[in-house]
Amino acid sequence: MSEDYKGKLLRVNLSNGVISTESYDPVILRRYLGGWGLIAYHLLKEVPAGCDPLGAQNKLIFTTGVMTGQPIAGGGRHMIGGKSPLTGGFGAGECGGYFGAELKRAGWDSIIFEGISPTPVYLWIKDDQVELRSADHLWGRETLDVQDAIREELGDKWIRVAQIGPAGERLARIANIIHDVNRAVGRTGMGAVMGSKRLRAVAVRGSKRPYTADPERISELSKWFRDHYKETGSAVFSTLGTMRMVRNNNNFGGLPTRNFSEGVFEGFEKLSAEHQLASVTVGRDSCFGCPIKCKWEVEINDPDFPVRREYGGPEYETTGAFGSLCGVDDNRVTCYANQLCNAAGLDTIGAGSAIATAIECYERGLLTREQTDGLELRFGDGAAVIELVKLTARREGFGDVLAEGSRRLAEWIGGDAPRYTVNIKGQDLAMHDPRVKYGHGLGVALSPTGADHMHSLHDNAYQTVGGIHEIEPLGVIEPLPFDDLSSAKARLVRQVMIWRVLDNLTGICMFHSWTVQQKVDLVSAVTGWSTSAIELWQAAERAYNMARAFNYREGFGPQDDRLPERIMQPVPAGPVGGKAIPAEEFEQAKRTLYGMMGWSQETAAPTRIKLEELDIPWVADLMEGCQASEQTRERREGGGDALG
Amino acid sequence: MSEDYKGKLLRVNLSNGVISTESYDPVILRRYLGGWGLIAYHLLKEVPAGCDPLGAQNKLIFTTGVMTGQPIAGGGRHMIGGKSPLTGGFGAGECGGYFGAELKRAGWDSIIFEGISPTPVYLWIKDDQVELRSADHLWGRETLDVQDAIREELGDKWIRVAQIGPAGERLARIANIIHDVNRAVGRTGMGAVMGSKRLRAVAVRGSKRPYTADPERISELSKWFRDHYKETGSAVFSTLGTMRMVRNNNNFGGLPTRNFSEGVFEGFEKLSAEHQLASVTVGRDSCFGCPIKCKWEVEINDPDFPVRREYGGPEYETTGAFGSLCGVDDNRVTCYANQLCNAAGLDTIGAGSAIATAIECYERGLLTREQTDGLELRFGDGAAVIELVKLTARREGFGDVLAEGSRRLAEWIGGDAPRYTVNIKGQDLAMHDPRVKYGHGLGVALSPTGADHMHSLHDNAYQTVGGIHEIEPLGVIEPLPFDDLSSAKARLVRQVMIWRVLDNLTGICMFHSWTVQQKVDLVSAVTGWSTSAIELWQAAERAYNMARAFNYREGFGPQDDRLPERIMQPVPAGPVGGKAIPAEEFEQAKRTLYGMMGWSQETAAPTRIKLEELDIPWVADLMEGCQASEQTRERREGGGDALG
Asked: Beta-carbon neighbour count of residue B577 at 10 Å?
């Protein structure tokens, strides 16, 4: 194989301040590609089973994909992972923007942060010059403020900043890592891991072109996309962005409403993309190399909702989480809550879900006014939502519990409260209700990162615009209804799971309708490898299985792959009103998926033979060597990292 | 999916002479593609478990691949299958030439022959006009004679003829089906099935262009190949053809010599490609659309070896089978034996192997001169080899037993004789010794068609020219030695098995170094499908699993997936002299492959979950419905079709 495509890794020991560099073996890069693949590789090799996610043994891994930093549409993504303080398992998220590309331009594929810094620091990378700098003066400040301060301090306004906010500093388990102050690696609590290491930010500036084996081919493909994307599934993202899903999901009867107790929201029009465009949107934003411009900037001149465009605008997930999920039909609330979260480094889905859980528990009398520090909680009360976001960001009063996420909040409330959380493995569902897409339910139930909508089938999507182009080439040639749970549906779920993870490994944005062939061309053109969709597909399967192997080591089993109780009950009204997901069929489909993925029915973890098929027998050795499964389960469920 | 790519099927009931036509559902074509896929589909659906391969219930299926008849290099192949009278299991073979393309040009994708004709017939297809004609006057005649007669009778010298010869008429289990009088669907005894139906020939002439969704793209790819194939792995086939393997395999110590008792042949130079070119080769021959011209025409003006160019020249397999395998170092013998086989419709590998077995048994005193009708058999005696081929072709005297193939011959000889046959599932090894390529051993042990070199890894090939181009893109990025039996080798074997079967399904010649991407482009351009290597890969896996399911139904199990005793013993000398394949490691690797393929360790058949993953749960239903496994095993091993 061509070994011209090389990779470099920065290892930063925060405990002693030592920074070292390593080269990736080209074979490692080819086998694991990037993203989940490299994250799982490092976590399995370097992070001991059962360690405290917020302790010195956990590591925080910044990484990229093959396409990150290449001048093509959708190549602006990077990924961050570590053991999750929210789930206790494999933690990872990805985001777009400019940080990943800048990191690549500085010459780095990954950064591994180890240990815990004695004092707040940030990392400054200028090509090969890398230094840890004091962040004492940045601690406690909002993200935009810190980004400005770093740029000023270092004298370069083009520096790209990844950072936690006050929420991450305070180890909120729903803290995220914010980039460009308006994009987040949102899920699985990576902000808390970063906070636990007292690492406030990573600032990067690069001046090199990432290696490209065939730049001409990349230019051709880039040009093709610019000329043709409007004829592909990408088109919808350039018109109504992710916000189009407000109307879509409401139409399907699956717009999460009042903590998923309903699927149709009477106030959806006021949250819709069309209303958002007409009322508050002042501009468009894009990621590195992307012509789609799916992101919106909003501005509101209202003293109660002082929203500035620098923080971007709420995506669909955020609009759902602070809007319909909390029963709020006011986009000033969703826009302002979005800004507060971006300023504080809070995951909007996690925060909205915790708040919705709190409201429901309050309305049901499970949560008292004393516990909420005198706040009255009602669905539809936008002002209360804003107040709760502020408290959560600072972990003040009742906000201290909300910051732990809905699962721990419910444990704290006690009694029946856990029935009113809607999470899988401790991570809240994004704004996609499995009751209108059963395949999505299977995907989120199985995901190693907990309820994660990024690599789960959206059953309806391929029957409407924007999905069919990528499902048919995976060999799904006959349509399946949203409520099908046959083996054919399980197969479809598997195909999409693996395919989506490939986007993560390659660093290609899922909103970009590159065909399978084009994705292979892209990877070949960058790396010079003589590769194929067959190899890349296996790489994605490999990464998925490694993430599951990590979870096995941390004590996860089949009982963790389930939908929340609420989701197993029908919504009262709308297109799927009164229609429950059939539990036995769902369980059967889940078991079918285990088999199709090559997982043991007993442990829900990859079998040795599957790992050998995927060319990673070392993972099977590691799993066998780890007899800690039972202990780690106990530790995970009853131990130190839980219910803080 | 696009449904513009359609297919037509001709169903010919030979018992009552009724000819009917059917259309393939476009979804069926996409799911099974062609070749093994369609053959297995029809066999599983239409041929009852346990039926006599030479009886009325067996069917003979002619089919094509997606590329058959398209104007691209390597697109001249078609496939023929049925239940094998040699193995009792899945029978199938493929060949190049012009017949398949002509069949497609006549508008047909498949022909299914059912029943048994009361009198000899041949089928004449001229586009939509199809008729059964008497073959009384053709019966008993040699193939070239019959081809001439048919062309003359129908008044068209461009008619393409597929036919059996006298060997097939006489139900020799090693009879093949000959095309253009010099190309054979050689293995698994399809000629005997055709003979049992009293179908002497299929003559076809077409005038239509097969459907092509994007002819321009096909032209581009075709042009690319013509311009570039000399820079690819295909180049070696255009210089020394398959004959180059005489020297190659001898160098590796794996040129099958004296019935596989040795791996280095002292007389190899006289059988070599170089000597063949210099001594007897008078021309080159090509298949439909192919610039490589890997086939050679030979001519010998010697009354003892009257070899005419019309019958082509011996390929490597034939040269090995009648040359080194019989200890003969005279290419006049291999050329003439080749001609006799092509004239009689005998598989050269099967015939050479039966003869070599007979010689060894004779030399060992297990076979007497009485049994050979007075013939003295010695390794190295070319005249005796020729005589035995003639007897076999006519099933005269001792030839009657040889025509049954080496396994049944050895049973007839009795005593220790079975130890000196080198077959798997009753089908003899081609001229590729697993002792110099352990991965090949795994491939042939598992193949549903018995020892079949067409879809088994040639471990050495990818370390020399002509192989690496296609193995690396399958994700095999680190070299593995020929004697490795690790899980990585099992994985490599699996990748190649599946990939090669895809060539069969698409109808692309394996000597054509199309990249994975190009193969997808080719299929897309012909069909108009939005497909990918991921889908095509699954289609190949599907076909392989269906063939294994067929064998399960016929009573095959893990005990049938083994290398012959002789191969498990070391050769005495040469590069691998004294080095035995380690039996336990080999068994372990085989078991690993079962797991990787999704087969039960108990039954060696596909599990339900694997079949569901491959979108064919109906095959699992069929397997469960078939409780006949034990009975059919008994029938297969002790019953009517065996040891005739």
From this structure: 14
